[in-house]
Design brief:
about 130 residues, alpha/beta, five-stranded mixed sheet, 5 strands, about 45% helix
Amino acid sequence: MHTISDVRIEISRRRDGIALARTAGELDALGAPVLRACLNERISTDRSFVLDLDEVTFLGSAGLEVLLDAQDSAARHRVPWALVGNSRPVARPLRVTGLAARLPLSPSVPAAILRLTATSSVVGIR
């Protein structure tokens, strides 16, 4: 049995203003709404953020939909973000569905932060 408590998201804010959302657990039909709420808040309140999914143990279609919606919403609101998801439970569905090419995937948290730092200095993020 799955419960919403199967998903844990820890948010920390770096000195440079980038929020880091480390996510663990199962992003299925029950867990995806927790991620959606977190991402909606990040998009509405943060200059930029990194979503680290390396501790996610399952990424189902509901979780994939949340990631796509986040991409669309972040683009509309001009909020740069980066996704880290190298574990097999995350990387495989992203690759198989072709979403790895559509999402701002980075190989590590430091690489994601570097990417966002470079983006914000070039674009002049809010």
